[in-house]
Amino acid sequence: MAFDMPRVTIHLSESEFEIYKSIPNGQRSAVLKKSLEAYKAKTRTSGSNEELLEELNRMKTERDALDKAYGEIETLMFNLEERIYDMKEKLSNEMKFPIGDQVHPWFTFIDADEFWNQFIDSAQQHLLEDIVFDSPTGRASYRVQGIDNGKVLIERLGTKSTKPSTFTFSTIERALKRLLKVGNDMVKVGGFMPVLAQECAVVEIHPCLRREGDWIIYSKEVK
């Protein structure tokens, strides 16, 4: 049995035609439309795959742009930390107000120069052996890119940003103040250094530091 529609002839069996007639007149076009859409979804053409590939490439481009921006933000954070530290030191000298823990000054616990020298020695070994280490979440990987004129350069792998995270003795000095101000020779991950790449690097490289769960722990016993 057949019936005509505008520019279309549909062939139905008697039972199929009875089903079609049972559909109220005002709903028949909607039923046909849904059937056509369902068929289209099941039989995707190569054109739809091309659309998916275009969307995938767009998302990759967006990810790469965010990755590059992340590296640039890390650099800006480091530079701002340096300026904040310098300003506090200037105010401390001129206005004589204390910075840090007054009951137990940080330098009575950890000698910053010794800590830095231990770190540099270990960083040199990491550089020679090209050791790769991960962030606490495992979502980022790092390695020592170089040690130049008192600066340590940490490269974040798998990123479009070409700028390494750079830090100096003063960066380490401030981190030690944060550690001992908290007390108990331990501090929460993220509270030791504001830039993730730097914190991961120092904890990974320095022989007196280790990470246990959400904590960074200092031990004077070098293993």
Describe the structure in brief.
With 223 residues, the chain is an alpha+beta fold. It has helices spanning 14-22, 28-42, 46-95, 112-129, 169-182, 196-205, and strands at 2-5, 8-11, 133-134, 141-148, 151-156, 165-167, 186-188, 209-212, 215-218.
SSE-based structural type: alpha+beta
Sketch the major β-sheet.
Answer: 4 strands, antiparallel
Q: Give the DSSP E fraction (strand runs of 2 or more residues).
A: 15-25%
Shape: elongated
How far apart the termini lie comes to 88 Å
Main attributes of the structure:
single chain, elongated, 223 residues, 4-stranded antiparallel β-sheet, 3-stranded antiparallel β-sheet, alpha+beta, 6 helices
What does this molecule look like?
This protein is α+β, with helices and mostly antiparallel strands. The protein folds into two domains: 2-43, no CATH class; 52-218, no CATH class. Helix content is 52%, strand content 17%. The protein has six helices and nine strands; from the N terminus they run ββααααββββαβαββ. The chain has helices at 14-22, 28-42, 46-95, 112-129, 169-182, 196-205, and strands at residues 2-5, 8-11, 133-134, 141-148, 151-156, 165-167, 186-188, 209-212, 215-218. The strands form three sheets. Strands 3-4-5-6 form a four-stranded antiparallel β-sheet. It has a three-stranded antiparallel β-sheet with strand order 7-9-8. It has a two-stranded antiparallel ribbon with strand order 1-2. β8 (209-212) and β9 form a beta hairpin. α4 (112-129) packs across α5 (169-182). The longest helix has 50 residues, at 46-95. The radius of gyration is 32 Å and the shape is elongated. The termini are far apart.
